[in-house]
Amino acid sequence: MFKASLRYYFIAFLIVSSCKTATPPKQVVAETPPLLEIGNEQFSISDFQDAYNRNKFATDSTKELSPQEYLPLYTDLKIKVLQAKNEGKDTTVDYREEINSYRDQLAKNQLVDKALVEKLTNEAYNRLKQEVKASHILIGVSEDASPADTLEAYRAAIALRGRLEEGSDFGDMAARFSRDPAAKKTKGDLGYFTAFQTLYPIETAAYALPVGKISQPVRTRAGYHLIKVTDRRTNRGMVQIAHIMVQIDSAASPAQKEAAKARIDEAYNHLQNGEDWAEVTESYSDDKQSRKNKGVLPMFGIGQMVPEIEEAAFSQRVNTFSKPILTIYGWHIIKVLEKRSIETLAVMAPSLRKKVVTDSRAKLIEQANFKRLREKYVVQEFEEPWKTAAALADSTLRTGKWDYMRAVSADWSNMTLFRIEQKPFDALSFLDYVKRRQQPKPKDASPAIIFRKYYQEYLAESLSDYEKEHLEEANPEFKSQMDEIRDGVLLAQLMEEQVWQRSLSDSTGQMAFYQKNKQRYNYPERAFATIVTAKDTQTVNAIRKTLAVSPYKLERKSQEILFAANATNIDAGQQEALNDLNIIMRKNPEYVVEIAGYRSADETEITSANRIRNVVKYLTAQNIPILRIIEKDYGSFRQTTDPERNRRVGFQFFTQSKKDVEKAFAENNASVSIQEGYFMKDNAAFTKLQWKVGDQTITDNGLIISANVVRIEQPRGKTFAEARGGVINDYQKELEKQLVARLQQKFPVKVNAQELEKIKR
């Protein structure tokens, strides 16, 4: 547990530390005496100063430690690390793998051009403020096509643009000439979009163009695009809806389509008559996923939903529902739950940074990094070896089945393609790289171009690897961070073995520590109570009524299943509904489900019981314990006007947990809370409530607070079982104290007090 927490700390440390600006190389100064000697190890004032600067708020984020206060912490750490090294913990395979993992993460962050990322982040945010409507025509040509084919496609795009400028209709030309498969139907219309919703080159062209203008050819991996902007508008933000869907199959007959329309109209009429949205959704919606949650869908923005629903959702007021809407999936009624405007840059920046380094903008970042590294390091490329290797490019590169293992005279391992500084990179490594990384390409791709691109990628990766290998030499801040990580991992391993694991598993030592320090572990005077808080008395009374009988009845139900006349066996469709119920039960371990069986008056008396039995049998086979199931056979009682619903099995959820009750009531009343347990006299609630057994209700700051105090217990000492958590924590501290004392004897500590005075706060 504690070791895992430390590892998580280091992950966070890597992320935060990597965002710091690298410190410039330190000037060479005259040698100074060590600040600290531990055994045979010496630690300089600069070592201590670096550690102090990073950790002077380690014990309290609001209070800075002085150098003298931090020195014991630093000394204890170094003693423990020295012991771990003496035990050889820094030579194990596990240690090296863990350090390499941390180093890779930290190095990756060092290679990112943070200024460019910030520039792209700001650009993306500014674009997100607007939505652009545009059309395009694609002249297809592979990104790996030959220069001749690429030029031909470019000229075709220029010629087509000329015709458009002369007055040809953009939509007609898109339907005739565009290689976009959807163009014949859409006439090139891309609809409205914003940042991150199309390829970056297309996005950039669209945001730069005035409405009505046509771009020059825009290159993407698919070919050349002509972009025409047809409209702009302010970003409408995000919207969340719930929906009721009556599905229409693509092969549905006219009669089936009419039946679907009649069903959605029936649902709409129920809503118009004031019936509960959740109940109508449960009875009518064919969307099995959203039906379980009152039809609620995830929040979405422009271009993320079918156009008909998107338009209705953004046009409609919150808390209103629409008339039936037809889409390619069927009929829908939507209810708008919430609308949000675009958030501030400060809020969105972290997620935008992640997006700009992973979407099509990432190519810009890679190119900038490649350019920086080429300028930083001396790179020598050798033309003759490249020509020899390039001769191996053939048509199998298009199929992704290329191999260099053939009868050739060249000794690839002794042929240097390029050098970075003085480090040679041989042709064999490059050929292995191509063989390993190759993927099928379009038919018009040129083998020579493909091979050259693989070479550029290999050179770029080699430069990045070279940079990573030499980060400690060029970046003192990185070296300092890695030194701290190495010490931290060794510390974690030593503490796990000598302190943490022992404190958790040594029950004899725990008991002995408890017996010796019993006076530390006491309960003050306490009240055991249930406190219910809500905005109004009606809600408080409803909660109290629910809590009066356990298990507690919830408003939540699962989809009922219907049976044909006299049928009792579970079919495939009913199994889907039961699987949904099974998921709910697994996600909510305190739930109990009441299974209620019904039959028509003309069915035999045992029919409803058999339906219950088969449902229970199916659920227990899915590992739902029988103790979490309540069976109720209502027979032919509670008849409905719908004959089919008289042959049903219904499901009502109960719970053993007051927190589930709180969650259910809080859906409609955010101020609801239910607290149960022991309370001290200084608890905020009991500054207003009376300290006595019984029921009492008060009003405080506009909230109704109702308390049921079951008992008041006098102060007493904790048993070992009650104190065990605190005992383990204190026992750990004692074991660590003993460990440090032993190590201080093993590794004597000498401090140069004069040097310590030089440390800057």
UniProtKB/TrEMBL annotation:
Classification via InterPro entries: OmpA-like_sf, PPIase_dom_sf, PPIase_PpiC, PrsA_foldase
GO MF assignments: peptidyl-prolyl cis-trans isomerase activity
Keywords: Isomerase, Rotamase, Signal
Signal sequence annotation: 1-22
PROSITE patterns recorded: PPIC_PPIASE_2, PROKAR_LIPOPROTEIN
Keyword Signal: yes
Keyword set includes Isomerase: yes
Domain PpiC: 129-231, 236-338
Pfam families: Rotamase, Rotamase_3
Name this polypeptide is given: Peptidylprolyl isomerase
Originating species: Dyadobacter luticola
